[in-house]
Amino acid sequence: MSIVAYAPASTANMSVGFDLLGAPLAPIDGSLLGDKVWVGETDGEFSLTTAGPFAHKLPEDYRQNIVYDCYLGYGRALAKRGLALKPLTMVLEKNLPVGSGLGSSATSVVAALVGLNAYHDDVLDEQELLLLMGELEGQISGSVHYDNVAPCYLGGLQLVLDDGGVISQPLPVFEDWYWVVCYPGISVSTSAARAILPAQYRRQDCLTYGRRLAGFVHASHTGQEAVAAAMLKDVIAEPYRSQLIPGFAAVRDHAATMGALATGISGSGPTVFCVMKDLHQAEKLKDWLAEHFIQNQDGFCHICKLDAQGARVTGTEL
């Protein structure tokens, strides 16, 4: 028996929702942008190996890999039910760069736990699995944040509540928006991106943040596309994190001339996103980004829609 689980890349914050908004990405060319994890049976001891274009960025010792932590964490969750892990081995296909702002660690966590749960006949329910995903993701970021794992797992645009027994809730999306997502090929660590933020914010910035987030949520529910797009501005992170991303200002300015509804930093960067309405213009912007923003062979650019499905089992073989 074997299971392959796929978890999509995600863009968090989305300018207006720092630590509260996130959505998974699906390239319109049908390719999969995210990590896969294979879980299979073994006659021997547990093992974890890696494959994929960014496997060389991972620790050589598998015990330092977050997927191994997922294996241990899932085992503890089973033990609380009086169950034990089946004898198994795992392979992580690492297709997302580390420190990209695309929820790289979340994709590994979500794919691993979805695969492990499917392999064990879905013992944990959706809420239990999401809580475990947040816990494991928190081991990397230093605190629990659901803005990547929730959309990556559940699909769709998610608003993180993490209160009243509700972790997140879906928001309506504008189906005709194209998300041009470009990773320049450099890395920005989450810790560095958080360290550059101020310890305190002005009252006016806090009020602006709350007003825009509320406006975006309301506009999404009422179908006010122009209002929603106008709210996609960041006063919390972008003024500071843009310093870590060479060429960001040029991207924003050029995207505006091509009709972009909004441009922002995906997660903690350095990936950027541009929201477009016209596919032809989105394709032209993608070409411009490939020429002017991507810095090395690791960089890439995709035109995406938001992935409504989220993580899923895709088969039995990588």
Automatic annotation (TrEMBL):
<dbReference type="Pfam" id="PF00288">
    <property type="entry name" value="GHMP_kinases_N"/>
</dbReference>
<dbReference type="InterPro" id="IPR006203">
    <property type="entry name" value="GHMP_knse_ATP-bd_CS"/>
</dbReference>
<dbReference type="Pfam" id="PF08544">
    <property type="entry name" value="GHMP_kinases_C"/>
</dbReference>
<feature type="binding site">
    <location>
        <begin position="97"/>
        <end position="107"/>
    </location>
    <ligand>
        <name>ATP</name>
    </ligand>
</feature>
<dbReference type="InterPro" id="IPR036554">
    <property type="entry name" value="GHMP_kinase_C_sf"/>
</dbReference>
<keyword id="KW-0791">Threonine biosynthesis</keyword>
<comment type="similarity">
    <text>Belongs to the GHMP kinase family. Homoserine kinase subfamily.</text>
</comment>
<comment type="pathway">
    <text>Amino-acid biosynthesis; L-threonine biosynthesis; L-threonine from L-aspartate: step 4/5.</text>
</comment>
<feature type="domain" description="GHMP kinase C-terminal">
    <location>
        <begin position="237"/>
        <end position="294"/>
    </location>
</feature>
<dbReference type="InterPro" id="IPR014721">
    <property type="entry name" value="Ribsml_uS5_D2-typ_fold_subgr"/>
</dbReference>
<keyword id="KW-0547">Nucleotide-binding</keyword>
<dbReference type="InterPro" id="IPR013750">
    <property type="entry name" value="GHMP_kinase_C_dom"/>
</dbReference>
<keyword id="KW-0963">Cytoplasm</keyword>
<dbReference type="InterPro" id="IPR000870">
    <property type="entry name" value="Homoserine_kinase"/>
</dbReference>
<protein>
    <recommendedName>
        <fullName>Homoserine kinase</fullName>
        <ecNumber>2.7.1.39</ecNumber>
    </recommendedName>
</protein>
<keyword id="KW-0808">Transferase</keyword>
<feature type="domain" description="GHMP kinase N-terminal">
    <location>
        <begin position="78"/>
        <end position="156"/>
    </location>
</feature>
<keyword id="KW-0028">Amino-acid biosynthesis</keyword>
<dbReference type="InterPro" id="IPR020568">
    <property type="entry name" value="Ribosomal_Su5_D2-typ_SF"/>
</dbReference>
<dbReference type="GO" id="GO:0016301">
    <property type="term" value="F:kinase activity"/>
</dbReference>
<keyword id="KW-0418">Kinase</keyword>
<dbReference type="InterPro" id="IPR006204">
    <property type="entry name" value="GHMP_kinase_N_dom"/>
</dbReference>
<comment type="function">
    <text>Catalyzes the ATP-dependent phosphorylation of L-homoserine to L-homoserine phosphate.</text>
</comment>
<keyword id="KW-0067">ATP-binding</keyword>
